[in-house]
Amino acid sequence: MFHDCFISFFLFFFPLSFFRMVKIYNRLHRTMGTLTYFTCHSWEWTYNNLDMLKNQLLPEDRKVFYLDPRPLHWPHYIENYCLGIKQFILNEDMSGLPAARAHLRKLRNIRYTFNSILMVVLWRVLIARSHLARNLWYLIMGLVSKVCQEFLDYQFHEALGCGETCHATTCLPVCLSTSPASHSLVDNCLLPCL
């Protein structure tokens, strides 16, 4: 019974996917043919004239005719470059671009979720099976816990102005037990800590 369903599923969807793959292949082949001239040739460009022109410009003209490529935001430039190739060389419609970006974002999130779940499952299996992995996990978590605790203690003492002179275990209960109406919180903390 399962084999019949599998065969009917295969026969139903295979011709559709086959023709779709042929269409995609033809489109890719056409695109590669269009870009062959640009990908198979090399050019050497000199910009001596540009340097000479840049050196001869007045400061006011340098602001109008901007010739320095260093402050360009390159990711934005490359994105516009690829969009220009898509629109003007490949003659593709740009209306499907937001849907394509949303689809890529969805695929990226699915990949991250799948990889995270796979990593957690593999790590749990490894911890369950290996004593060394379990000890390594406890060591890493202990170090992370200690660093977080030191950071929070430091932030607490910086906020109160205690500095290095007190410890949170002795300072905090006294600071919280004194009334803030009589003295400031920093005075209440510093007196018992010193």
UniProtKB/TrEMBL annotation:
Instruction: Name the top EC class.
Output: oxidoreductase
Please give one Gene Ontology molecular function term for this protein: alcohol-forming very long-chain fatty acyl-CoA reductase activity
GO CC annotation: peroxisome
Matching Pfam families, A to Z? Sterile
Instruction: Please state the Enzyme Commission number of this protein.
Output: 1.2.1.84
Tell me the domain of life.
Eukaryota
Q: What is this protein called?
A: FAR
